[in-house]
User: Fold tRNA N6-adenosine threonylcarbamoyltransferase from Eremococcus coleocola ACS-139-V-Col8.
Amino acid sequence: MTVILAIESSCDETSVALIEDGHKILTNLVASQIKSHMRFGGVVPEVASRHHVEQISQLVNLALKEGKVNWKQIDAVAVTQGPGLVGALLVGVTAAKTLALIHNKPLIAVNHLAGHIYASQLQAPLQFPALALIVSGGHTELVYLENHLDFQVIGETQDDAVGEAYDKVGRILDLPYPAGKYLDQLAHQGQESYDVPRAMLHEDNLDFSFSGMKSAVMNLVHNAHQRGQTINQADLAASFQAAVVEILTSKVKTALEDHPNCQQFILAGGVAANSGLRAALTDLIQTNFSQIDLQIPPLSLCGDNAAMIGAVAYPMYLAKDFADLSINAIPSLDL
Ligand code: KG4
Ligand code: ZN
Assistant:
């Protein structure tokens, strides 16, 4: 039995988890800072770092208490090294290095995007080859895995991440930050009646572009205001969501056709909470790829959390892929 204490602080959630053998959650505490950033309409890096500093020690102590684990039973300390906000990452990395040093445990440096993919391992074992779609506030990537920790990025956004586009469109519609959830809810009350372009839909690659779609929605709102017309917010949300879902689903279909040996498809990241996307991808797999195992983590594990970092750290622990205590945060770390 291997118990890993994992820390995540890459953006606006401070989280500490205890994970047994890479899949069993002993505890997964998440302190969200959303309320502090809401009034600014986005994450303020300095505010995020300060909150992480205030939270981290208490969360470590609370996790040990709630997980009913003492330091003798912990085998390693894992932490998100990147990508993310440098100040925010540094708080987690510094805490993890200190704990590893004091308690004489190996340190494991984890990529946050790998974490989003491995969130699915907290509900079912990974099956290889696997294809993962990571959709979050900072990333939109299609990743192919031949085996554990063997990440091949086969498609990615050329500009905005899909969550970022949701948040920016939500801001134009005066929805609270982060707007993805509210825009998703609004989309269900409307009809697709506005024309939102499907960027890169017919291009012969697996890349995405969301900034043009976001600008198209902004222009629709702006032009309507200038003409003194009102916009039907629910219809606009439905039209934007339909365009986003169509693009993501179409690229996943192409990727699965390109990789016929795929055993599992994983939807990962904060935008995996999107009901339209979940429904469309479930339908795609059931209809066209019924032999593929579909994994969509529960909502609580789609957003940023430390349990997913502990899940990646387990195969790294088995491979003795340990980090030196001199490591630093890497804000633009690639998969
Ligand atoms: O993975 P995550 O928690 O943080 C990052 O690593 O970015 O993702 C946060 C993103 C935000 O942009 C948020 O608006 C979006 O996920 N999001 C959604 C939904 N729930 C959260 N986007 C669309 N529909 C949702 N239901
Ligand atoms: Zn994330």
The longest strand covers residues 24-32. DSSP finds eleven helices and ten strands in the chain.
